[in-house]
TrEMBL record, chain A:
This is Unannotated protein. It comes from freshwater metagenome. Belongs to the complex I subunit 4 family. Keywords: Membrane, NAD, Translocase, Transmembrane, Transmembrane helix. It holds the Pfam family Oxidored_q5_N. Residues 76-129 form the NADH:ubiquinone oxidoreductase chain 4 N-terminal domain. It is a multi-pass membrane protein. It is found in: Membrane. The lineage of its organism: unclassified sequences, metagenomes, ecological metagenomes. Signal peptide: none annotated.
TrEMBL record, chain B:
One of its GO terms (biological process) is electron transport coupled proton transport. It is found in: Membrane. Signal peptide: none annotated. The chain crosses the membrane at residues 6-25, 37-57, 153-172, 184-203, 209-228, 249-269, 281-299, 320-342, 354-375, 382-404, 452-471, 491-511, 531-550, 585-605, 721-739. Residues 106-127 have a biased composition (Basic and acidic residues). Pfam families: Proton_antipo_M, Proton_antipo_N. Residues 203-502 form the NADH:quinone oxidoreductase/Mrp antiporter transmembrane domain. Residues 137-187 form the NADH-Ubiquinone oxidoreductase (complex I) chain 5 N-terminal domain. It comes from freshwater metagenome. This is Unannotated protein. Keywords: Membrane, Transmembrane, Transmembrane helix. Its main location: membrane. Residues 94-127 are annotated as: Disordered. GO terms for cellular component: membrane.
Length: 519, 740
């Protein structure tokens, strides 16, 4: 069993969704039931393999990569098929494995126009491969390929199944991210050529190996390292998205179909922050130290700015989208501190934001299905029309504003704490200012979320919706898709060690690399 | 008696279970079952709390010695054997850390030093460490952070107070909320609140306290907005939550600063206190930390200038006001100071500095709250402002170093204030749910039990001998007069003025409500037993509880040491606690404050009952009128917060940010996009057809299959852009590699 997992586990997990997608390709699209079952089954089997990997994972050695497979892939440039899981990637993989089947369950009876479950579900499965692949890849080219694989299905999803302005939104999403990717691949190539060579079968070659690059890249001049980091910063920063590269996000989210928004918020944004933690910072710690104050500053601006923009929104979904800008600011602040506390907060924040904002998008989608509008001023009295849905929204709002006892808190508080004493030689006074501003951001996030809830959940339904028969409470498939998320939000809130313990080894190791090579 | 002190976590867990049961089954099982589950759970909690208190008393009477003591101290510090190495790391971290040094004494020594400390200041009791039981909560950077329970006299006292009042409120609410649309919802929140509050008071570290603190805040939010159909109520709920969030900035930062000050390895409250009192603490850092923490106290415990949410919070059901907004949640801030007294004492240099921030804010709050109570016509709002004023008293007491006095007042106040609130609820229950005192009057004959209990509680609050308020208020005044080395004269004056104000506004409320002629339109009648019995119990508490801390010498009258100052003996910590002085009973102060209180009552009687005095002064004198308007507008603080700050942020500032986003940032993005499209057009004609034709066609064919999905979208453009971007990327990569 263990041997099998060691050699095949990860690859199977990553590529099984594609197998499902291929099976679906050859079956005509009229057989909707078949497609739904196959897609769900594929995602569940993938989830099962993931669970096997997690149960056999050696948690005492979470700092080192496990289930590593290292095979030649493109020998001419020494790009290799290297995959592996450690404590940093494990929570992200778990999040992906959870969200995808829930999205399929949620979509079961409600495929957005123009329907076509076959194409929709195939895209979701391709997305799953891309996301999982990005989290396991340990080779820059391999990572880049997976990173890009994610792009197209999401582009189609928004462009075909999206709202009224889907063409603009999808094109913007695609080009903006591609622009970032272009700079990212530039940075990767530069890194490749400028870093030291390693011996491959007796021949000295450059390497894309993420495991080796921290050491190989020590010889890169400070100036070049700063430029390379800058390229990665823009590539990853757009994905996060960081202020001021965030404007694709509200449009994409607002126009995307519900599960598109959920996957986008829950997993895709994390590819950016994950890139910082996995690639950019450990490989170029010296440049990271120089960039960190700037990243911290943008992160904090994002927190406040995103919150202020939220306060001005009239559309519920757009408000939630902007709240992502604000929340991801906390994640980036944690990363910018270059400390174990900050990184741990960031990873926790990534998972928590994935669950909570994903949940909010689910509710927003279901609200739209029933009211056919998300205009906050027209909604109201949800607690009266649909008590369960109103409660779930209220709960998600509380979780999103970072209430202690729910998951969101553990992404915010340790990040603020970390800014008190940033790592390496970072300017302490500067980061303490950032800390205070970030803490003020928590008030603003409570303000926009509660203000939204007051107008959507509280009050009495307007005349328009008083007798509307479409306003039925939470359906069975919604319960099925939401319950796991709701439970996890509470459990992670009370037992944060579920994640912290897993990530601690790997984060400590990463920070040690950062300190050892960059200090 | 079995030992409950080790398993005290069961108490909050029980209430949490009650919450979950009511939440999931309450609707199905009906209102009787719902209330029954709640009442049964709180009753069990109360019994267990009494056992815990008994255990604690036993522990104080038979303090642990030798190995048992050492083991307890290790536990209390959060230093379990396996984290023994934490100390080493802690020292390393501290010495690395810009030369700040941390308490480095080993366990045994710290135990000894505390024992000697205790001898030095009390002389009578030995150092009894609290009982701390922890489990690992989370791990970061190899450090284990723990979660656990801490039981000492203070915690035990709070357990009992919270459970008694919660139980009475649970019982009272069965009638008061009878037939309410959201009966189950209400009881679920009551259980959750009680669980959170108990969790809070039992916390062994500041992070856990932060958690409990916020959870009670959420319950408060939910219960203030209980009748959420009306915008007025939800506005009040939002105001309460957001104002508290503002204070929480301070709390969060305070927790962080004290954490790092004490070595950055533990949030344990005793560890923080020990560090603060260790003599080589960084007092500047502690001062900043304490002031930040006090920011949280300011909002939660309704201190000036963040008190404005509390009167609005009266929009919630009255039993909730009694439980949450008078007796328990609002004292969370006071409890925080009491719990982290080492940090506050050292940080603010209580007793040895001229910087009296906490004492001053407390004293100032007593006055401004008391004054506002005069212009209220809503009975509940009078009580709300009175609560603000009394909370100020407690904070002031802690600020001048009179720890026991402040905590004792917290204890007595909880009972008589809850009695007043529930009494007001009873009155309203009889008068068509109004709280407007102008529609009351003459109720003393119609509601004799409510009247009697309200009167007793009023006198207790006014501080009339021998009711509970007299003793606790008097201790505070004595503490302000001669507690620490340099007397806090201003605080004493504040305290005396408030003694007068309290009696006067309570007299006003009392006479307006219960005397004169009935001015309303209902047919008031005495409330049923479910309502009056809790009132009687609380009134009885208001009579007797003052004697729990009977002074050692009362006008020369001396009782044996085994019955005097029992509260102080059992509740005041002896471990990781600063060397505070205890003011003796001061006869002249007791006489002065009693005269002031009696005078206040008398003036209120003359003015409101006998209709004597300068009536209509506000229409004759401009100054009086201006003063009245100033009070009526609550010092214009609400206008500042709601209108200027909140309105400004949600209005112009947010709109400006959004405009900036849509037009500037996104404008640039769209501009680049359109520019690129134009460039692309040119490139397409001149370069694309000839040079990268193959590349485009290739990728075009490759995505033909997927393209089916995309019929309606302009696919061609995307491919062009992509190709151009990648061409650019290759060029840039070349530049980076070969030029930089």
């Amino acid at each position: 069993m263990k041997d099998f997992l060691n050699s095949w586990g990860i690859s199977l997990m990553v590529f099984l969704p594609l197998v499902g997608a291929l099976a679906m390709l050859v079956v005509p699209k009229a057989k909707e039931q078949f497609h739904k079952v196959v897609a769900l089954a594929a995602s569940l089997v993938v989830g099962f393999i993931g669970i096997l990997l997690m149960t056999n994972f050696d948690y005492d050695a979470s700092g080192s990569l496990q289930y590593v497979v290292d095979k030649a892939w493109i020998p001419i440039i020494n790009s290799r098929y290297i995959v592996g899981i450690d404590g940093i990637s494990l929570p992200m993989i778990a999040l992906t494995l959870l969200i995808v089947p829930l999205c399929i369950i949620y979509s079961w009876n409600r495929f957005p126009e123009p329907k076509n479950p076959k194409a929709f579900l195939i895209l979701i499965l391709i997305l799953e491969t891309g996301m999982l692949g990005s989290f396991v890849a340990q080779d820059l080219i391999l990572f880049f390929v997976f990173f890009e694989v994610v792009l197209l299905p999401m582009y189609f999803m928004i462009g075909v199944w999206g709202g009224e302005k889907r063409q603009y939104a999808s094109l913007k999403f695609f080009l903006y991210t591609l622009f970032g990717s272009a700079l990212m691949i530039v940075a990767f190539l530069a890194l490749y050529f400028l870093s030291d060579k390693v011996s491959v079968d007796g021949q000295m070659m450059h390497s894309f190996d993420v495991r080796l690059l921290p050491e190989l890249a020590t010889g890169i001049s400070t100036g070049a390292a700063l430029w390379i980091f800058g390229g990665m910063f823009i590539g990853f920063g757009i994905k996060v998205p960081m202020f001021p590269f965030h404007t694709w996000l509200p449009d994409a989210h607002t126009q995307a179909p519900t599960v598109g928004s959920v996957i986008l918020a829950a997993v895709l944004l994390k590819l950016g922050t994950y890139g910082f933690i996995r690639i950019a910072i450990p490989i170029l710690p010296g440049a990271a130290e120089k960039w960190a104050p700037f990243i911290g500053l943008l992160a904090v601006i994002g927190i406040i700015y995103g919150a202020l923009c939220c306060l001005a929104q009239t559309d519920m979904k757009r408000l939630i989208a902007f709240s992502s800008v604000s929340h991801m600011g906390f994640v980036m602040l944690g990363i910018a501190t270059l400390t174990t506390f900050g990184f741990q907060a960031a990873i926790f924040g990534m998972v928590a934001h994935g669950l909570i904002t994903g949940m909010l998008f689910f509710v927003a989608g279901s609200t739209k299905d029933r009211y056919h509008t998300l205009d906050i001023s027209r909604l109201g009295g949800m607690l009266k029309s649909m008590p369960h849905m109103g409660w779930i929204l209220g709960f998600s709002v509380m979780a999103s504003l970072g209430l202690p006892g729910l998951a969101g808190f553990w992404g915010e508080f340790p990040a603020i704490l970390a800014a008190y004493e940033p790592g390496l030689g970072l300017n302490v006074a500067f980061f303490r200012v950032l800390m205070v501003i970030a803490a003020i951001g928590t008030v603003l996030s409570a303000a926009y979320l509660l203000w939204m809830y007051q107008r959507v959940g509280f009050g009495v339904p307007s005349k328009e919706f008083e007798e509307d028969p479409h306003l039925h409470d939470v359906t069975f498939s919604e319960w099925l898709a939401w319950t796991p998320i709701l439970i996890l939000i509470v459990v992670l809130g009370f037992v944060p060690n579920i994640i912290f313990k897993v990530t601690d080894g790997a984060v400590s190791r990463t920070i040690a690399i950062v300190n050892g090579l960059g200090g | 008696m079995f030992n409950m002190i080790d398993k005290v976590w069961i108490i909050p867990a029980l209430m949490a279970a009650s919450f979950l049961i009511i939440l999931f089954f309450g609707k199905r099982w009906g209102t009787r079952a719902t209330a029954g589950i709640g009442i049964a759970s709180v009753s069990i909690c109360l019994i267990l709390s009494v056992v815990v208190a008994g255990n604690w008393i036993n522990r104080v009477n038979n303090p642990p010695t030798g190995a048992a003591l050492a083991a307890d101290i290790v536990q209390a510090n959060g230093l379990t054997p396996q984290t023994g190495k934490t100390i080493g790391e802690e020292v390393n971290a501290a010495t690395k850390d810009s030369g700040e040094t941390v308490a480095t004494d080993s366990h045994g020594e710290s135990g000894e030093s505390h024992a000697s400390e205790a001898e030095a200041h009390g002389g009578e009791h030995e150092s009894v460490p609290p009982v701390v039981r922890t489990v690992t909560w989370f791990q970061i950077g190899g450090l284990q952070f723990e979660m656990g329970t801490l039981v000492d006299g203070l915690a035990a006292m709070m357990l009992i107070t919270v459970c008694i009042i919660s139980l009475l409120v649970h019982i009272y609410s069965t009638e008061y909320l009878h037939g309410d649309v959201r009966f189950t919802h209400y009881y679920a929140f009551l259980s959750l609140f009680t669980a959170s509050m108990l969790f809070y008071v039992l916390s062994s570290n500041t992070l856990q306290m932060l958690m409990g603190w916020e959870l009670v805040g959420v319950c408060s939010f939910g219960l203030i907005g209980h009748w959420w159909e009306e915008k007025k109520n939800t506005d009040a709920a939002l105001k309460a939550f957001l104002t508290n969030r503002v204070g929480d900035i301070g709390l969060i930062l305070g927790v962080i600063i004290t954490f790092f000050a004490a070595g950055g390895s533990s949030f344990n409250v005793l560890h923080l206190n020990e560090y603060a009192l260790s003599g080589n603490a960084n007092t500047t850092l502690l001062l900043v930390g304490a002031l930040c923490l006090f920011g949280g106290v300011t909002s939660k415990s309704g201190q000036f200038p963040l008190h404005t949410w509390l009167p609005d919070a009266m929009a919630g059901p009255t039993p909730v006001s009694a439980l949450i907004h008078a007796a328990t949640m609002v004292v969370a801030g006071v409890y925080l100071i009491a719990r982290l007294y080492g940090v506050f004492f050292s940080g603010l240099a209580i007793g040895s500095s001229t910087f009296h921030y906490v004492a001053f804010i407390g004293g100032f709050t007593t006055i401004i709250g008391g004054l506002l109570a005069f212009v209220q016509t809503d009975l509940k709002k009078v009580l709300a402002y009175s609560t603000i004023s009394q909370l100020g008293y407690m904070v002031m007491a802690l600020g001048v170093g009179a720890w026991t006095a402040g905590v004792f007042h917290l204890f007595t106040h909880a009972f008589f204030k809850a009695c007043l609130f529930l009494g007001a609820g009873s009155v309203s229950h009889a008068c068509h749910h109004t709280f407007d005192m102008r529609e009351m009057g003459g109720l003393r004959k119609k509601m004799p039990v409510t009247h009697a209990t309200f009167l007793i509680a009023t006198l207790a609050l006014a501080g009339i001998f021998p009711l509970a308020g007299f003793w606790s208020k008097d201790e505070i005044l004595a503490g302000a007069a001669n507690g620490q080395e340099n007397a806090y004269t201003i605080m004493l004056i504040f305290g005396l003025i408030t003694a007068f104000l309290t009696a006067a506004y309570m007299g006003r409320a009392y006479w307006m409500t219960f005397w004169g002629k009935y001015r309303g339109h209902a047919h008031p009648h005495e409330s049923p037993k479910v309502i009056t019995v809790p009132l009687v119990i609380l009134a009885a508490c208001a009579v007797v509880l003052g004697f729990t801390n009977f002074p050692k010498s009362f006008f020369g009258f001396k009782l044996p040491g085994s019955v005097t100052t029992r509260f102080e003996h059992f509740v005041e910590p002896t471990f990781a606690f600063p060397p505070i002085q205890h003011a003796a009973f001061t006869p002249w102060l007791a006489i002065a404050s009693t005269i002031l209180a009696a005078g206040g009552l008398f003036i209120a009687y003359q003015y409101y009952e006998k209709n004597r005095g300068p009536h209509g002064l506000t229409s004759r004198s401009k100054i009086a009128h201006a003063g009245y308007t100033f009070l009526e507008n609550k010092y214009y603080l609400d206008n500042l917060y709601t209108g200027v700050i909140a309105g400004g942020t949600t209005g112009p500032i947010a709109r400006a940010a959004n405009w900036f986003n849509q037009n500037i940032i996104d404008g640039v993005v769209n501009g680049i996009g359109n520019g690129a499209r134009k460039v692309a057009g040119v490139v397409y004609v001149f370069a694309d057809q000839i040079i990268i034709d193959g590349a485009v066609n290739g990728s075009g064919q490759g995505s033909e299959g997927a393209g089916q999905l995309l019929r309606k979208i302009q696919t061609g453009k995307v491919q062009q852009y992509a190709s151009i971007l990648f061409a650019g990327a290759v060029v840039l990569a070349g530049v980076l590699v070969f030029v930089v």
